[in-house]
Amino acid sequence: MASQYAKHSVLLCFRIVFSCFFLPQIFLFNARLASAQTPAYACASGNYTFCDTSLDVKIRVDDLVKMLTLQEKVANLVDGAAGVSRLGIPKYEWWSEILHGVSNTGPGVHFTSLVPGATSFPQVILTAASFNKSLFEIIGKVVSTEGRAMYNVGLAGLTYWSPNVNIFRDPRWGRGQETPGEDPTLTSNYAAAFVRGLQQRDDGDKDRLKVASCCKHYTAYDLDNWKGIQRYTFNALVTQQDLDDTFQPPFKSCVLDGNVASVMCSYNQVNGKPTCGDPDLLSGIVRGKWNLNGYIVTDCDSLDVIFNNQHYTKTPEETVALTLNAGVDLNCGSFLAKNGESAVNKGLVNESVIDRALTNNFATLMRLGFFDGDPKKQLYGNLGPKDVCTPENQELAREAARQGIVLLKNTAGSLPLSPAVIKSLAVIGPNAQATHTMLGNYEGVPCKYVTPLQGLSASVSTVFQAGCSDVSCATAQVDEAKKIAAAADAVVLVMGSDQSIETEGRDRVNITLPGQQSLLISEVASVSKGPVILVIMSGGGWDVQFAKDSPKITSILWVGFPGEAGGAAIADVIFGLHNPSGRLPMTWYPQSYVDKVSMTDMHMRPDPATGYPGRTYRFYKGQTVYSFGDGLGYSTFTHSLVQAPKVVSVPLEEGHVCRSSSSTCKSIDAVEQSCKNLGFNIQLRVRNVGTMSGSHTVLLFSSPPSVHNAAQKHLLGFQKLHLTPQTEGLVKFNVDVCKHLSMVDELGNRKVAVGEHVLHVGDLKHPLTVRI
Ligand SMILES: *[C@@H]1O[C@H](CO)[C@@H](O)[C@H](O)[C@H]1NC(C)=O
Ligand SMILES: *[C@@H]1O[C@H](CO)[C@@H](O)[C@H](O)[C@H]1NC(C)=O
Ligand SMILES: *[C@@H]1O[C@H](CO)[C@@H](O)[C@H](O)[C@H]1NC(C)=O
Ligand SMILES: *[C@@H]1O[C@H](CO)[C@@H](O)[C@H](O)[C@H]1NC(C)=O
């Protein structure tokens, strides 16, 4: 997304010029602020059937679509939709963003003196590190309330193209920060919870939407621009097995568990076909198998990319036909508005296909109340500027950052710092005064900022040296930094990256800290007399082996891009006002990994023949700097097993091939009747044996028998609980054998392996035999 906007400025200019010619003002103002002739809202007057709220959405949409001319139809298949002024339907800008707060990255959102900012939550990768499903959902709920409030005053849309649920496959990816990390289970859970939080209405009406969410970028999209290889022309070669067990699950969960109202197809090709032109991926899977209730939108502008960058089609009309026939309903961009009519006139696409697309789009708007008359008289109609940046919402932004922050290293006696002991703190580093950097990308304008230095200065007296002029740190000012470090009781170094190092359109080459950052850290640590706390602010992981190994660096915290209240949250953790419980949602590899592995190699599984090491904790067996799930707290928690079966028997139907030859059956299909409702509970007792209250994250992994090239382990589920010192609690996992213990075989079929599966939580291991 935002590619043409950010990267292809030439195309963008073209798009704006074009748009301004046909669709004046669409990029400048929300529909209801636009020209005087534009109706304020649809169905303000007139008694059209499509305005009759007592009728079914389908009847209303059919009525509307059949009244339109081909020109009117085509003009409503793009993000800057023209509306139909003769029927009192205003223009509508479909493109708004709400990744971690209402964002003005797309043209649908504006901040003005009326609403100067919105609550800016941590970038998604940090929120994911909380492993807290209620948090994912409540953030969705809060940001959609702010979005709806801004819509009511003409500053935002109702259709948000968030979240990004692509798998963080390679540590170099600049957009990994936008995602919930490398694990399909975590990402699927995040997707469903965040989407529910965004979309669900407080009146429980499941047919209607508070706002419409969109899961992107479908599919196998996780390379932006690496050594000159661009996402626009990248052909991701993906095996059926990797597609079905790594790249597709978050989208599936988004549609089936989250009931998302939209899926966005990506720029890249998958196995030689542009995703937005692949009928199997769109009509076949998203619309067909998963039964999407909503619209399929292209990235901006994937149609232009297919034609002009990929040269996949010979004419613009052919491009229109390819994508619409594949299942696209809406084009972010203007390509379809420009070429749609001629594609129909040339007989390349039937008008019925245009009608289908339009129906999906209008039905979504109808579920949002767009055709229900005055928004002020609807549910959420009373929301306004007063509901944006409320103290509660801003407090939740701070709470979310605290819950996500990951304590990676903590030598005894280092953290938390006690202000009674530590009277002076040296704060060093190019991110110590971070403001905008804390937001990450797809950001909005925040309510306000608390920088790390401000956060820390609230508790103790601080002295500050940046140490580098920016995060690139071409030349570190080592001497000045050492001087204040040597004089202080403790040192906090706030290092890492910003969007100049990792962002959309910018993948990294190296995963060592930029420039002379490592030198600065080591030099400062060498003269410090007390604790040295390294705070890494970034979206992706780093090879910080030197810091992990250094006895002088006593603590390491990863704080993601922690959002507007990041500095306060960092201080809460450092001074022990919050007991950290975040866990890494992605592997931190050594630099040697990226030296060896091409970013373009999509394989998840290792290949012993070539020495290719595989990707993510599920498949990579080599050394890591830090691993998926790593994270410490200030208390110790112990686990013990209360309940778990040792054997699970899968009953096979009469005549099942494995009944007669059970010894040769290594796995059985996870879709068979025998597999239905086959489940059990696992109960664990968790005890806080430390002296501090805190939350504890329980990650339940399963290692299946090694058949079908299965993952060495996978996350079966996760739970969180809060415990005061010396108390215990129970966590329960409801395990569905076919869902949670299954794997995808080489052909993409879901199977349950027969034999011993090992369940593990921390050091606790429990063998479980699946037999038939
Ligand atoms: C509503 O529409 C019908 C026909 O569609 C028309 O006969 C009637 O006069 C209209 N009523 C009003 C109040 O506009
Ligand atoms: C249009 O629809 C007709 C009738 O269903 C069909 O025969 C024809 O192949 C379609 N044309 C295109 C271009 O899809
Ligand atoms: C990456 O690191 C290597 C050494 O490992 C260095 O030679 C190269 O200049 C670095 N490249 C970038 C883009 O920083
Ligand atoms: C999960 O997040 C919610 C919302 O912030 C919070 O109330 C709850 O305590 C968190 N759960 C745990 C176990 O920390």
UniProtKB/TrEMBL annotation:
Domain of life: Eukaryota
Signal peptide: none
Domain Fibronectin type III-like: 696-765
Keyword Hydrolase recorded: yes
Keywords: Glycosidase, Hydrolase, Signal
Gene Ontology CC, one term: apoplast
InterPro entries found in the cross-reference section: BXL, Fn3-like, GH, Glyco_hydro_3_C, Glyco_hydro_3_C_sf, Glyco_hydro_3_N, Glyco_hydro_3_N_sf, Ig-like_fold
One MF annotation (Gene Ontology) recorded for this entry: xylan 1,4-beta-xylosidase activity
GO process terms (BP): arabinan catabolic process; xylan catabolic process
PANTHER family named in the record: BETA-D-XYLOSIDASE 4-RELATED, SUGAR HYDROLASE-RELATED
Protein name: Beta-xylosidase/alpha-L-arabinofuranosidase 2-like
Species of provenance: Coffea arabica
Organism taxonomic ancestry: Eukaryota, Viridiplantae, Streptophyta, Embryophyta, Tracheophyta
